[in-house]
């Protein structure tokens, strides 16, 4: 295996969701300067779901017009759009336009819609493109996809987004320092003071644009660098963008792959097994495929939509430090899970089911604490902080491993299987977001606490 190709696959994967992940971690800094305020996350959730029109169109094209869509061209376009939209955000994110006499952040919302379309469409284009390389490089891609959340999170920590200090209200009112901004309601003589950022939102959005440039360069090298060409699948029918003869191409790839692995055929070898289904290579039966895709939709609904929407409610009652520690360590857990899967790629469906149930159990604990906010269990104890951070890390670690293993399984089933993998990822994320949006933003099912003044009974 080529280390250079592993690095390129990782950098290519980082461009998949870095823009939208970056937008989410930057929200604490920009909402105070926008007319939508803290309703902005709700608007972003809706925009991301509208952006699923991109992967829907790509999936339909692959299904009804196989071989017509040029994947290389689509990837070049969406990466270029992501790069341009991130760059324009740096200069227009705070501009407003009056809509019905009310100022609205129209430039930011429109550019975010473009970024959402780019990232959603990457699920059904980046993954199938990795079919052209040897199977080992798919895990490197997933590591990069995990880093697409970690890198913006670490950058936001360096920037100092959301760092809060509690100060006596009387002292704060007399403080004339121009470097401090107050936020939140005051009671009991305390007020939450958010520390000014170390660098501006404009610099952060330019950084996101640079990350998209890195993704574009990595994609160019994956297509044209001589060292990478030696790592491509031999006789692969997907090298020119398209899927050739559809499932027949998958079968041809399967036969060639088997021939490479076993150049000497022994007479004692058992005859090849008949396909167990018409999907891909026919390795799995229809019920097993249904199980795989249901698990894929479930874990992506939890990790991409359901649990992130309640992260602040579950963590902030234990303190701002707990919130940032949980967010950062959970972001680290994603690429760690991918790294583990690189060396321990266990494809057992029973283990997949066990890990899914285990990860869901950790998610259930997190959700319970979010429902109990602002006074969850052990809120005054260091044990509560340890349990919450540990629950987030183990939740992301187990379900991220499941996602990688499913990706590896479907990669072996062929190009079409990876297209459907990306489509189900987006479907699960969309269903999770649509289920949580009314609970969080319409019915106010969850209650947030003041980081400085919330009082909970010790009993």
UniProtKB/TrEMBL annotation:
Membrane topology: Multi-pass membrane protein
Transmembrane segments: 42-61, 73-93, 105-129, 141-164, 199-222, 283-303, 323-344, 351-372, 384-410, 417-440
Annotated localization: Cell membrane
GO molecular function, one term: riboflavin transmembrane transporter activity
Reaction catalysed by this enzyme: riboflavin(in) = riboflavin(out)
Annotated Pfam families: SLC52_ribofla_tr
Keyword Transmembrane helix: yes
Keyword check for Phosphoprotein: no
Record's keyword terms, sorted: Cell membrane, Membrane, Transmembrane, Transmembrane helix, Transport
Gene Ontology CC annotation, any one: plasma membrane
Family recorded in the similarity comment: Belongs to the riboflavin transporter family.
Record's function text: Plasma membrane transporter mediating the uptake by cells of the water soluble vitamin B2/riboflavin that plays a key role in biochemical oxidation-reduction reactions of the carbohydrate, lipid, and amino acid metabolism.
Protein name: Riboflavin transporter
Provenance organism: Anguilla anguilla (European freshwater eel)
Lineage: Eukaryota, Metazoa, Chordata, Craniata, Vertebrata
């Amino acid at each position: 295996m080529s280390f250079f190709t592993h690095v390129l696959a990782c950098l290519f994967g980082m461009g998949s969701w870095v823009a939208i992940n970056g937008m989410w971690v930057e929200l604490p800094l920009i909402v105070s300067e926008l007319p939508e305020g803290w309703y902005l996350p709700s608007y972003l959730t809706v925009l991301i779901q509208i952006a699923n029109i991109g992967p829907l169109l790509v999936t339909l094209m692959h299904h009804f017009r196989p071989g017509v869509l040029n994947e290389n061209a689509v990837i070049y376009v969406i990466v270029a759009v992501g790069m341009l939209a991130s760059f324009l955000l740096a200069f227009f994110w705070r501009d407003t336009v009056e809509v019905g006499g009310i100022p609205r952040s129209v430039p930011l919302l429109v550019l975010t819609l473009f970024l959402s379309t780019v990232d959603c469409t990457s699920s059904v284009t980046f993954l199938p493109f990795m079919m052209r390389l040897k199977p080992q490089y798919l895990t490197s891609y997933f590591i990069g996809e995990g880093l697409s959340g970690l890198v913006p999170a670490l950058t936001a920590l360096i920037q100092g987004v959301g760092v809060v200090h509690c100060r006596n209200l009387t002292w704060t009112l007399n403080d004339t320092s121009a470097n401090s901004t107050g936020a939140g309601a005051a009671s009991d003589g305390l007020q939450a003071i958010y520390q000014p950022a170390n660098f501006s939102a404009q610099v952060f959005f330019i950084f996101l644009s640079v990350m998209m440039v890195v993704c574009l360069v990595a994609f160019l090298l994956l297509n044209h660098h001589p060292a990478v060409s030696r790592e491509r699948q031999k006789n692969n029918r997907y090298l020119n963008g398209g899927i050739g003869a559809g499932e027949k191409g998958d079968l041809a790839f399967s036969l060639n792959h088997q021939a490479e692995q076993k150049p000497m055929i022994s007479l004692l070898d058992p005859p090849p097994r008949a396909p167990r289904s018409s999907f891909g290579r026919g390795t799995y039966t229809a019920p097993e495929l249904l199980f795989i895709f249901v698990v894929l939709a479930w874990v992506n609904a939890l990790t991409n939509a359901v649990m992130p929407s309640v992260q602040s409610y579950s963590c902030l009652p234990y303190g701002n430090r707990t919130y940032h520690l949980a967010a950062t360590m959970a972001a680290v857990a994603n690429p760690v899970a991918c790294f583990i899967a690189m060396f321990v790629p266990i494809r057992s469906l029973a283990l997949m089911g066990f890990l899914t149930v285990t990860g869901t159990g950790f998610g259930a604990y997190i959700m319970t604490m979010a429902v109990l906010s602002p006074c969850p269990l052990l809120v005054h104890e260091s044990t509560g902080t340890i349990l919450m951070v540990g629950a987030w890390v183990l939740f992301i670690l187990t379900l991220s491993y499941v996602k990688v293993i499913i990706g590896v399984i479907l990669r072996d089933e062929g190009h079409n299987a990876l297209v459907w993998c990306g489509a189900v990822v987006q479907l699960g994320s969309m269903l999770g977001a649509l289920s949580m949006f009314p609970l969080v933003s319409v019915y106010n099912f969850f209650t947030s606490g003041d980081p400085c003044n919330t009082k909970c009974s010790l009993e």
